[in-house]
Every structure is written in structure tokens, then in C-alpha cells.
Write a structure and sequence with these properties.
Order of helices and strands of chain C: EEEEEEEE
Largest interface: A-B, 43 and 46 residues
Chains: A alpha/beta (347), B alpha/beta (326), C mainly beta (79)
Helix content of chain A: 25-40%
Shape of chain A: globular
Helix content of chain C: under 10%
Number of strands of chain C: 8
Oligomer: heterotrimer
CATH topology of chain C: OB fold (Dihydrolipoamide Acetyltransferase, E2P)
Shape of chain C: elongated
Largest sheet of chain C: 4 strands, antiparallel
Distance between the termini of chain C: 10 Å
Order of helices and strands of chain A: EHEHEHEHEHEHEEEEHEEHEHEHH
Number of helices of chain A: 11
Number of strands of chain A: 14
Radius of gyration of chain C: 12 Å
Strand content of chain A: 15-25%
Structural class of chain A: alpha/beta
CATH topology of the largest domain in chain A: Rossmann fold
Distance between the termini of chain A: 41 Å
CATH superfamily of the largest domain in chain A: Thiamin diphosphate (ThDP)-binding fold, Pyr/PP domains
CATH superfamily of chain C: RNA polymerase II/Efflux pump adaptor protein, barrel-sandwich hybrid domain
Radius of gyration of chain A: 20 Å
């Protein structure tokens, strides 16, 4: 189940451990890199993003902050402008509300507004997603909110191999980069047992994965299911079931929200002729619409059926389990969507 | 420590340069905006927040700063930029939106950046404080010399970023100074109608910082107090809230009549530049002839900068898509 | 003479039960003393299991196995 990329030491990692390995490697190489955020030095991060780092690098380079996101993200931006490479822990993407100005008006725009004089090499580590009853203010996804503002690169790996490669890419990039992981994919026991498909063998050496490059997890010829993060795994489960029904589904992992692999998306849809997009972010004004726009703008005649979006409905995340499960872009909803595309156009 | 003659002359020259630039900008700004004031028209479009009356704050502080230091300003940045030594030609060109501007026209009046002198702006109130403190943090972490100063207005002292950042400055003993230019107004709302305390420098103890208030909008007094704050920062003794009484002689931006201010209050304001000029002459720091020569030299620089701005080319429209990412 | 791998003994507090989450190395792999070879949980805490010796790993407790402090999670054949 775990995707085998072929490696040298036979180590199977969780996404959390893979991400940490990348951070530790870059921290060892770059004395001007440091971590800053809440609960990272003593606790190692709420989602384990910084375990062991204060012990190795000291609290001067792994900085626990007060609950002051606007303040410390502004501070990190200034440090980046002055030649440092901050790595910023935000834990829950929902918390961007208390620091959005610092991100979208200052960090994202500094390189542009200064005409290239000041770079802001900053990487955010952010957890997102729900499905474990954490309710409206701790379960959001918000790709669209962050992706909408120019000046930020956003990636969301769906397995440990990609987690490490994309983290290296983020840390080596001189811009504002966001490395976002679905909370139920980290491999944390308290959010459910690690999903086997999110575990992967991870090479010891450093490697990068380019921004804007999607990944085909499973080739198929009847329908393209585009997903990101956890919806990739839901799509894979759906694809197994569809195969038993005689439907061959191709599962494409966007991996990169900004920049988005529009060519990759179109290539796949042009091949299969059917499109289902699964995204845990709110449906309207987001990633699913952006994917549909790729096809509509280039050549909608490749479609043999209307495209179908499987996204979070436009409501806040409900607390109660049956309601929350209803809203999630789960396997059942993806199956229903694929079967609908197999019906073609109703004319 | 009081300023010596050389420092006083430097301060006057920087104030005069800022003022002559603002005078020229005020005239140029109205071009294309008559008979109907349309902010988007003319060679100097957009909002324009000028620094008339606040020049002493910039020079009294910047007189102590050097190449290792960093300075952030807000939406009213001209006097701070000039005092910091930002390239005058490229600053003027940036105001005109020309390709030769500091940011090639991408920033404009509220977003002036000059990496050569570690100068930046924030168009959002108080949000330049974090980056300023971050530059202080970078110096402390790397053991490199230098301090950071962020200039904000009295209105900024009520914004969340102000409190969050100052707490961390106090907590981590960062070499950082928050200069509050207290012109007593946040656009139309007076300080006493917006701020629970009479003195924002009194808030310093809430963050384990030093706090000092300087009355009078006087470059010499500001110089002395700023000197104390700078020494504190340079010697690892932590940060300061330096609150400077000043006067916003004009409205919030060009086009704001300031009619919300009582007439007597507006009439009572004193322009600090003629006041300082007279003081330097009376004290014999400069002779009348030297003063005239200095002012002529500065006027020439400002004229050249404005001419450079006007005559430079606009960027190609497609350049809008460049410089998003490094 | 193979060496038993058990959970760290100082993480249990008042808890009696833990659970195995993942193995980093496969059954039969060679591990080095001190390496993190597995992750487990006691209550909410995520715990790393270190190899007590170098050698060939034989896994006994698969992921999701409920364990206690004396459970033998694996054995290492020194090499």
C-alpha cells in the first residue's frame, strides 16, 4: 500500500517524521535557519513538527513564543528580510485569522512591493482538516483563502516521501512557502492510527520535489479523480471499488496548490474525458473551481460528462459526528460523483 | 547627551530636505486633480500622507543610527526616509511611480523600501513593528551589531500588533526602539478619544521596557532622549517606547481639511523648522550666509530629485507581473 | 542470544495500556543500537521505541496491538 519510491535504508516513516527529518537536515546546514512558534521547544509541536529539535539546536534556534501570531509572524518576516530563514509553526490553519495581515499584506507582498530588494525566505508548517469532531474553528482547510493571495507558494503532501521532498523544496526556496499536512495524515496516534498509505519508505539523503508538479498515484482511463491531502487516499479507496465495477479511475494528487499543475490536470482529463475533484476546503470560490476552470478555459470539449465537485459544503464545520461525516469529501461521495460522470451529458 | 554643532546642523539639514521635498510634492500632487479632486489622477496619484511638522522626530532619532541599524516607518514615511538617508532621487521616482523608483514603481508612497540603508515601510498601522523587532532579533541571534527602530503613530498604540510585539521585545530583550510620533490624532479621532491612558510611554512597564515621553517637538530634546534609548539597545539593556510629542500641521492626507480639529488648536501649532532655524542662528551654530548656502544646496538636491522623478520613464505595463517571487 | 525490545519504562504514569502505531524498520531488517525503530502511544503521548542493540529485527507486536509495559514488542538478534 505504501508507495515504494525505492530507497537505500528500508525505513518506513510517518509524514510527521519525514517532515522533521527534512527540517533537521536543513537546520544543520544553515545556521541562519530557526524555528519559531507556539509549543515547539518543550512540546515539540502540537503535531510533532519539532520533536527533538530544541534538544539538538537549543532554545535560541527553536523559539517558543507567547500566543501572539501577528507579532511573531511579523517578527519572523523582519528576520527573513534581514537574512535569516525562519520556519514558522502555526499548528491549525484556522489560526491564520489572528495573523492574516502579517501573512497576506506583509510577508506575501514584501518582495514585490520592494521591487525585489527584500526577500522573505519563510516556511510555514501548518496542519489542517477535520473528521475528528474538532468543530468549526479547528477543522478547516482554507487552501483557497491562502492560495488566493499572490506571493505565497503552498504544498500539501499526501505521503511521507512527498512530505520530506516538499519540505526540502520549501526550506530551500527564498519565498513565503506553506507546507500543509492534513491532521489525519501526520501519523499521530491521537488522531487515529497512521493511515498505511500515508506511510512511505523515505531515503536518508536530502531530495526535493518541484513546486507545481502533480503526481499520478494510480493510472486509469475512464475518469480523472483530482485530490489533495486526505482526499487522495479517499480517491484511491474509491478507485479500488470502482475497478470492481469495471470503471478505471486515474487518481491525480495536485500536491501543490500554488503553483498549480494546470498542464498535468488538463493532460489527465483530456485522456479520460471525465473529471471529479475532491477537496476538503469549502466548495465555493476554491480549488475545485480552479481545477474546473483549467478544463473550461483550455478545451471543455474533452469532457464526456459534466465535471463533478466533491467538496465541503458551504457551511462551517459542524461538531456532531453524523453531521461532520455528512460534510466530508469521503469515499461514498466520490463514488457517487464518479458514477454520475459515467452517465454522460443529459441533453 | 546634547547634540554637538555638527549633529545639530545635520538635523536641520535633514528636516529642511524633508520639508522642501514635501513642499514640492504638495504642489505636484495637485496637478491633474483640479477642478475636481480625483485622487487617482495626475503625476502623483494615490493617497499622500505628508510629514509637515513631524520632522524633528525623524532627525532626533536617526542622528544616532548607522549602517548596521534598521529603520521601519509607517504610512507617513517621508521624513523618516529622508532622515535615514534613503536615495532621494529614487524615492521621488517611486512617488511618481516610475521605473527608476526604489521599487520600480511597485510600492509607492506608503511602501518605500531602500535595502542600502535597511529601510522599509508598512502601509498597515502598527504592522511594521513586528518586522522591525524581527530585524532586531536577527542581529541578536547572529551576534551582529545594530539595532532596529520602528516609527509608528499614537493610533498604532491601540493595535494588537503593538502589544504582541512589545511583549516579545521585553521578553527576549531585543535591541529595538518603538518611536511613537504622538501628533495626537488618528486621522480624525483625537488621542484622548481613543486611548485609555494619557501617555503611551506609560505602557512600557506592561512589557518590561523603558518608556520616555518628550514634549515640545524639539529636535535637541528628542536627540537627547533618543540617545538614551539607543545606548540602552546597543548595550543589551533592552527596548524602549520613545513617545515624542509632535504636530501634524496639515490634515491626515492631502485632501483632508482637518475641519474636525478645533480652530484654536490648529492655530496654536508651531512649525518646528523655522523655530529650529532661528535657534541655530541665534546660537551661532551657523552664520546667516552658511544657512543660506546650506538651504540652497538642499533645495538643489530636492529640485534634482523631483526632476528625476518627473523625467524618468514609467515601467512597461507587463512589468506588473514581475518580481512576485525571488 | 536475542534481546527483547520492550516499551520505555518511564512513560506509563498510571496507565496500564498502550498501543503500537508503526514500525520504522521491516521484519528481518538490520537495526543499529539507539535508532528509533517504532512509535507507540500511551494515553495521548506518542513514544519512540529505541533499539537496545544492533542486529536483526523480528517484529512480534504488529501495529494496533494493545500492549502493557512488559510486552515484548520485538526481538533483536545481535550481529
Amino acid at each position: 500500500m505504501a508507495h515504494d519510491h525505492g530507497n537505500d535504508t528500508g525505513r518506513t516513516f510517518t509524514m510527521a517524521r519525514a517532515g522533521r527529518e527534512a527540517v533537521i537536515s536543513e537546520m544543520r546546514k544553515h545556521p541562519n535557519m530557526f524555528l519559531i512558534g507556539e509549543d515547539i521547544a518543550k512540546l515539540g509541536g502540537v503535531f510533532g513538527t519539532a520533536i527533538g529539535m530544541a534538544a539538538e539546536f537549543g532554545t535560541a534556534r527553536v523559539i517558543d513564543t507567547p500566543i501572539s501570531e501577528t507579532g511573531f509572524i511579523g517578527i519572523a518576516t523582519g528576520a527573513a528580510m534581514a537574512g535569516m530563514r525562519p520556519v514558522i509553526e502555526i499548528a491549525f490553519v484556522d489560526f491564520i485569522g489572528v495573523c492574516f495581515n502579517a501573512i497576506f499584506n506583509f510577508a506575501a507582498k514584501t518582495h514585490y512591493m520592494s521591487g525585489g530588494q527584500f526577500k522573505t525566505p519563510m516556511t510555514f508548517m501548518i496542519g489542517y482538516g477535520g473528521g475528528y469532531c474538532d468543530a468549526a474553528q479547528h477543522s478547516q482547510t482554507l487552501f483557497a483563502t491562502l492560495g488566493h493571495v499572490p506571493g505565497i507558494k503552498i504544498v500539501t503532501p499526501a505521503d511521507a516521501y512527498d512530505a520530506k521532498g516538499l519540505m526540502h523544496s520549501c526550506l530551500q526556496d527564498d519565498n513565503v512557502t506553506i507546507w500543509m499536512v492534513h491532521k489525519r495524515l501526520w501519523g499521530l496516534g491521537w488522531l487515529g492510527f497512521p493511515l498505511p498509505a500515508a506511510l512511505s519508505e523515505v531515503p536518508e539523503h536530502d531530495y526535493t520535489i518541484p513546486f507545481g508538479q502533480s503526481r499520478i498515484w494510480r493510472e486509469g482511463k475512464d475518469v480523472t479523480i483530482v485530490g489533495l491531502g486526505l482526499t487522495v487516499h479517499n480517491a484511491l479507496t474509491a478507485a479500488d471499488q470502482l475497478a470492481a465495477e469495471g470503471i478505471s479511475a486515474e487518481v491525480l494528487d495536485l500536491r501543490s496548490v500554488v503553483p498549480m499543475d494546470r498542464d498535468g490536470v488538463f493532460r489527465s482529463v483530456a485522456k479520460t474525458g471525465r473529471l471529479v475533484v475532491a477537496d476538503e476546503d469549502y466548495m465555493s470560490f476554491g480549488v475545485t473551481a480552479e481545477v474546473l476552470a483549467v478544463v473550461a478555459e483550455r478545451d471543455p470539449s474533452v469532457l464526456k460528462a459534466p465535471a463533478v465537485r466533491v467538496a465541503y459544503p458551504d457551511v462551517p464545520v459542524p461538531f456532531s459526528r453524523p453531521m461532520e461525516e455528512f460534510c466530508l469529501p469521503n469515499v461514498e461521495r466520490i463514488l457517487t460523483a464518479v458514477r454520475a460522470t459515467m452517465q454522460g451529458f443529459k441533453r | 547627551m546634547k547634540p554637538n554643532a555638527k549633529q545639530r546642523i545635520w538635523m536641520y539639514e535633514a528636516m529642511y530636505r524633508s520639508r522642501r521635498l514635501d513642499d514640492a510634492v504638495l504642489i505636484a500632487y495637485s496637478e491633474g486633480k483640479t477642478p475636481v479632486f480625483n485622487m487617482g489622477k495626475g503625476p502623483l496619484p494615490g493617497e499622500m500622507h505628508q510629514s509637515f511638522g513631524q520632522e524633528p522626530c525623524a532627525v532626533g532619532v536617526c542622528a544616532h543610527l548607522g549602517a548596521d541599524d534598521a529603520v521601519g516607518a509607517g504610512h507617513r514615511p517621508h521624513h523618516v526616509a529622508v532622515a535615514r538617508g534613503v536615495n532621494l532621487n529614487r524615492m521621488a521616482a517611486e512617488l511618481f511611480g516610475k521605473v527608476t523608483g526604489l521599487s520600480g514603481g511597485r510600492g509607492g508612497h506608503m511602501h518605500l523600501y531602500d535595502k542600502d540603508v535597511n529601510f522599509f515601510c508598512s502601509g498597515i498601522i502598527a504592522e511594521g513593528m513586528g518586522p522591525g523587532a524581527g530585524m532586531a532579533l536577527a542581529r541578536k541571534m547572529t551576534g551582529k551589531p545594530g539595532i532596529a527602530v520602528a516609527f509608528v503613530g499614537d493610533g498604532a498604540a491601540n493595535q494588537g500588533a503593538f502589544h504582541e510585539v512589545l511583549n516579545m521585545v521585553g521578553l527576549w530583550k531585543l535591541p529595538f526602539i518603538c518611536v511613537i510620533e504622538d501628533n495626537k490624532y488618528g486621522v480624525s479621532v483625537s488621542k484622548k478619544d481613543s486611548t485609555a491612558v494619557a501617555r503611551n510611554s506609560d505602557r512600557a512597564s506592561a512589557y518590561a521596557l523603558a518608556g520616555e515621553y518628550v514634549a515640545g517637538n524639539d529636535p535637541d530634546l528628542i536627540f537627547e532622549a533618543a540617545g538614551r534609548a539607543v545606548e540602552r539597545a546597543r548595550h543589551g539593556e533592552g527596548g524602549t517606547i520613545l513617545e515624542l510629542e509632535t504636530e501634524r500641521l496639515h490634515g491626515h492626507f492631502i485632501g483632508d481639511s482637518g475641519a474636525y480639529r478645533p480652530e484654536e488648536e490648529r492655530k496654536a501649532m508651531i512649525d518646528p523648522i523655522p523655530m529650529y532655524r532661528a535657534r541655530l542662528l541665534a546660537a551661532g551654530v551657523l552664520s546667516a550666509g552658511e544657512m543660506t548656502a546650506l538651504e540652497a544646496k538642499v533645495q538643489h538636491e530636492v529640485d534634482e530629485a523631483m526632476a528625476f522623478g518627473r523625467s524618468s520613464a514609467y515601467p512597461q505595463p507587463t512589468e506588473a507581473l514581475e518580481k512576485l517571487f525571488a | 542470544m536475542s534481546i527483547d525490545v520492550v516499551a520505555p519504562q518511564d512513560v506509563w504514569g498510571d496507565s496500564l495500556e498502550g498501543v503500537v502505531l508503526t514500525w520504522i524498520y521491516k521484519n528481518g531488517a538490520h537495526v543499529t543500537a539507539g535508532q528509533v525503530i517504532a512509535e507507540m502511544m500511551v494515553e495521548k503521548a506518542q513514544i519512540e521505541v529505541l533499539a537496545p542493540a544492533s542486529g536483526r529485527l523480528t517484529i512480534l507486536a504488529q501495529p494496533e496491538t494493545v500492549i502493557d509495559r512488559s510486552y515484548v514488542l520485538a526481538r533483536i538478534e545481535p550481529a
